[in-house]
Structures are given as structure tokens and as C-alpha cells.
Specification:
Blueprint (H helix, E strand, L loop, with lengths): L4 H11 L19 H4 L6 E5 L2 E4 H11 L12 H27 L6 H12 L5 H11 L4 H23 L6 H10 L5 E2 L2 E10 L6 H20 L3 H11 L10 E6 L5 H7 L11 E2 L3 E11 L2 E2 L2 H30 L3 E3 L1
Antiparallel strand pairs: 1-2, 1-9, 3-8, 4-5, 4-7, 6-7
Helix pairs in contact: 1-7, 3-4, 4-7, 8-12
């Protein structure tokens, strides 16, 4: 499978770290000549960062990276979103250039064997030598040395961001456990029921006669529901006579906790046992018949069950904070000129 170069080398650099990078892929040319890039004339300078010029091709590539679905539409972006995509892409390429310059100042380097592997992996994406040469002419002025430098730049940026963001965003098991202990409310599951329903609707403003007719129909449905013996029989009945969208799911709402159902239904179902069918419940626009298939009291979800999701959430949040702070620091001493 052929991949965008930026996606490929995000994967290459993070695979060695055993993690997914918290930053977007570094800005590199794509293997396929997307219309957005290929149709451009000679690159046009758009911004100068501490003396280094970035072009409209850099921006076009990053816009495709921000909104990859454009590939499916001939390289075009939705008109209502294009300005936002462009602004985001511009910030990204400026951030990456600032990160690259700071990495160079810190004397960070890319190991030769890592660069060689990256060059080899990229070259293998092309099915034919002619395709590879066309790419070099379009994107790298026909020079493999220039391509090598672009790939080295990409790898260096990824290394830099792993050091400045990813590693600093990590939470140890002890830190996760401490957060869990200090925030029990976040991990407490409320009372919940596994619910099936049959509804006979009468509308928001029924006449007395209309509501009475609905009640009569609901009482007939209740007699049938009381005669069902299990989930399947109640569900088949719901499919036949229920007047709400849940009928196509055998009336099955799965697990619902307090606050996720009409108050009139909630008052009843939390007094019931598993396997019981309720009497008629007036919900103000329908008569509801409920079957409770299971009950769970409020409880604290064990740490081991939330650990993985908690780690992901906390590290993603921390990584975003670090990225914002890093971007602010890098820009504070930079000279950025729009051209």
C-alpha cells in the first residue's frame, strides 16, 4: 500500500518509540502527485521564518494533511472550511519550521542508519523507477540529495517533538493511580438498568378521546407484554406494536443510567427487578411498558478497567498543553514575516 510520505515517516519515527506521536505528521511531499500540489506553478514564497522561506507548496501539502478527504474530491476543499484549513495548515508549517530550527540549535542529529532506513522505505513505495524520477523532478528538483535532506528534516522534527512533547506528556502508573484516587466521582458509574420498552403514542396535545383510545390500545399491549416470558418474546412484541423508533431494536435501549430516560419511567424502573414488566407508565406523550433485563447499583469502576482510557485521555490533554506552550516559546523569539 502506498502512503503519504508524512504519514509513513510519522509511523517510522514513532514505531521506534513504541507509541503514537502527539503531534501531526511533519510536512513532507506526498508520494502521489495530488492535484493541489502538482497543478501549482513554480513554488511561491509565502512566509519567512528567521530567514528560512516556506512556499505555497509546503502549505498545500499541509492542507492535504489537515484535510485528507480532499484527495477524494480532486484536491479541492469545502468552500466553507477552506479558510479554516488554510489557517491551521499555516500554523502547522510555521510550528514545524520553528521546531526544526530549535532542534538544530540543540545539536540534535538523526542516526545514519535511521535515515538510510527511511530513504529505503520511501523509495519502495514507488512501483516503477519512472514514477520515482517523476516525483523527484516535481518535488525535489530532480535531486536525491534534496529528498534526503527533506527526510532528514522530517525525522529530526519528529525526534524533537517526541522529546519536547510526547515523553513529557507521559503518565506513570503511580500518577494515574493518584489521579484515580483523588477524583473518585469521575469513575463512579451511576445506577443503571437494561431496558426494553413498548410505547403507544398519543401526541403532545391529544383530545380526551384520543388519549382514551391510546390507553385502551396500551392496555391491550400490556396484557400481551405481561404474557411474554423473556427478552426475545417481549422484543418480538415490541417490533410488532410499539410506536417509537426503538421497535426496530426489539425495544432494546441497552443500559441506561439515571437522567437518561423520562422521569416517569425512571421512577418506576428503578423499583423493579430483572425480568419484571411494568404497568402502564404515562410519559406525557405516550403510554410506556418497560421490561427490566438487568440492574446495577451505583459503584466505583475498578482502576484496572479505566486505566488504559485514563492514560490516553490525560496524556492527550497534557500533550496539547505542552504543544501550545512550546509553540508560544518558539514564536516569542522568532522573526516571522508573511510574504
Amino acid at each position: 500500500m502506498k502512503l503519504r510520505l508524512s504519514v509513513l515517516f510519522l509511523a517510522v519515527t514513532t514505531a521506534a518509540q513504541g507509541q503514537v506521536s502527539s503531534h501531526p505528521p511533519t510536512n513532507l511531499p506526498s508520494v502521489t502527485n495530488s492535484p493541489t500540489v502538482a497543478s501549482l506553478p513554480a513554488p511561491r514564497p509565502i512566509v519567512r521564518i528567521n530567514g528560512t522561506v516556506l512556499t505555497d507548496r509546503d502549505l498545500a501539502r499541509e492542507m492535504m494533511n489537515v484535510f485528507p478527504y480532499a484527495k477524494q474530491h480532486g484536491g479541492k476543499f469545502p468552500k466553507e472550511k477552506e479558510a479554516q484549513i488554510r489557517q491551521m495548515a499555516m500554523k502547522n508549517i510555521e510550528f514545524e519550521e520553528l521546531a526544526y530550527q530549535d532542534a538544530q540549535k540543540s545539536a540534535m542529529t538523526v542516526a545514519p542508519d535511521k535515515l538510510a532506513r527511511a530513504m529505503k522505505d520511501f523509495r519502495e513505495q514507488f512501483e516503477a523507477e519512472a514514477e520515482y524520477q517523476d516525483f523527484l523532478k516535481l518535488e525535489q528538483k530532480g535531486s536525491e540529495l534534496e529528498l534526503r535532506e527533506r527526510i532528514r528534516r522530517s525525522l529530526l522534527i519528529d525526534q524533537y517533538l517526541v522529546a519536547e512533547i510526547d515523553r513529557k506528556a507521559r503518565y506513570s502508573d503511580a500518577q494515574l493511580k493518584e489521579f484515580y484516587t483523588k477524583n473518585p466521582g469521575r469513575f463512579r458509574k451511576p445506577d443503571s438498568v437494561w431496558l426494553q420498552t413498548i410505547s403507544i403514542a398519543y401526541g403532545q396535545t391529544p383530545t380526551p378521546a384520543e388519549k382514551q383510545a391510546a390507553r385502551k390500545k396500551a392496555e391491550e399491549a400490556l396484557n400481551q407484554a405481561k404474557a411474554t416470558k423473556d427478552y426475545e418474546e417481549f422484543g418480538m412484541l415490541a417490533e410488532k406494536i410499539s410506536m417509537d423508533d426503538w421497535r426496530v431494536m426489539m425495544g432494546d435501549h441497552k443500559w441506561l443510567h439515571r437522567g437518561r430516560m423520562p422521569e416517569a419511567v425512571e421512577r418506576v424502573v428503578f423499583t423493579m427487578k430483572a425480568g419484571q414488566v411494568s404497568e402502564l407508565i404515562d410519559t406525557s406523550d405516550s403510554f410506556c411498558i418497560a421490561r427490566v433485563n438487568g440492574r446495577e447499583d451505583s459503584h466505583l469502576v475498578p482502576f484496572d478497567r479505566v486505566k488504559a482510557e485514563l492514560k490516553r485521555d490525560l496524556e492527550e490533554h497534557k500533550a496539547q498543553e505542552l504543544r501550545v506552550a512550546l509553540d508560544k516559546r518558539l514564536r516569542s523569539g522568532a522573526k516571522i514575516e508573511e510574504l
